[in-house]
Amino acid sequence: MERPWKTTDLRLVLEDGSIWRGKSFGSSGTQVGEVVFNTSLTGYQEILTDPSYAGQFVLMTQPHIGNTGVNFGDEESQQCHLAGLVIRSLSPCVSNWRSQKTLSDYLKERNIMGISDIDTRAITRRLREDGSLIGVLSTDAFKTDEELLHMSRTWHIVGKDLITDVSCTEPYEWKDATSDDWEFSNKVNTSNDTKLHVVAYDFGVKQNILRRLVSYGCKITVVPSKFPASEVLKLNPDGVLFSNGPGDPSAVPYAVDSVRSFLGKLPVFGICMGHQLLGQALGGKTFKMKFGHHGGNHPVRHLPTGRIEISAQNHNYAVDIASLPEGVEVTHINLNDGTCAGLTIPAMKVMSIQYHPEASPGPHDADPAFYDFVQMMSQNQA
Ligand SMILES: NC(=O)CC[C@H](N)C(=O)O
């Protein structure tokens, strides 16, 4: 007889040998990935559809997840690319006027595994002490703990090209601006012939980046991650954007080469992965942080003005400040750990930030970065 309650039916086995039992929601099966924790209180849907989480299990430190359901307006891409979702408690009901689906149904449809009813606080403390850990989620009762542990210990995320699978396959034009309901700054109304043309390299781009640029009066052509720089130059754009994206920037040297081909030729803006690729293209190095930055309230200082921005972040790698050659100015610092959060070379019309100016998890502090890029492109035309 089926029990009226659900007992634990899912294991999360971490590479350190610990085993966590919980309840499954979403899809079932066996999945390996890197466990990272995210401290955002809201925005689980944007997190689920952020392609930069490919290969990772996102553990939410906010204990109660799912209460606002899911709606199709808040997606950052058309798919969920993350390996799975790890939460303390799945809301038994949904209460939000925008909700179109429950989180559980949504994940099931997208073939993403979720685990609830496990001690997310204990796992977070472990990740803070030991760093990000590889783990395996499995609903398969026939797989032994040892098998799952072996899987977690033989899988690696460092050195893998994860952007090829999340990038678009053909160039396309992006037309949507931020909708009027959500616009918070003055929209720039430019006629078609005065619009600045931005070519955006899609390494796993979040759609809100594209929407913000359209709101700031740009025309956008999105190109795949391996699109030749020579073809982009033929389009004669006013600037090039290098998007966010999953994985290790050192695993995609072809993308670093692309960034390098534009330096000094066109205004360039790098966001997150784009910032890391730019750091490497300029001759700097990137390194893997202990447990990364994943959350909606990371304080960042803009060094030239001293202004603090509260920013949304999602990254495990960072640009090593000491490795940057002379002439590169560090513009922003993460106040939690002093890592590099932004760069510029004004004479080359190059700028980048390690966090997410398009995300507005409450504050909109980082949005002016888009305005700065637009100014850079306009000045280049003058
Ligand atoms: N959001 C991103 O672009 C992530 C950048 C990079 N993949 C990292 O984890 O550091």
TrEMBL record:
Protein name: Uncharacterized protein
Phylogenetic placement of the source organism: Eukaryota, Viridiplantae, Streptophyta, Embryophyta, Tracheophyta
Superkingdom, natural source: Eukaryota
Originating organism: Diphasiastrum complanatum (Issler's clubmoss)
